[in-house]
Amino acid sequence: MESIREQLLILISTPIYMVIIGVEILLSNYQHRRLYTWKDTAANIYLMLLNGALDLLLRAVYFVTLDYFYRHNIFSFSHVVVYWVMLLILEDFMYYWLHRFDHEIRLFWAVHVTHHSSETMNFTVGFRSSVFQPLYRFIYFIPLALMGFKPLDIIFIYSATQIWGIFVHTELIKKMGWLEYILVTPSHHRVHHASNAKYLDKNMGMFLIIWDKMFGTFQAELPEEKYQPIRYGLTKPLEKETPVTIVFHEWIQIWKDVTRTDITWKEKWNYMGQLVIYEYADGFKTGSQQNGLGIQRHVKKHQLMCAVVTVEVFPVV
Ligand SMILES: [Zn+2]
Ligand SMILES: [Zn+2]
Question: What pTM was computed for the model?
Answer without folding.
Answer: 0.84
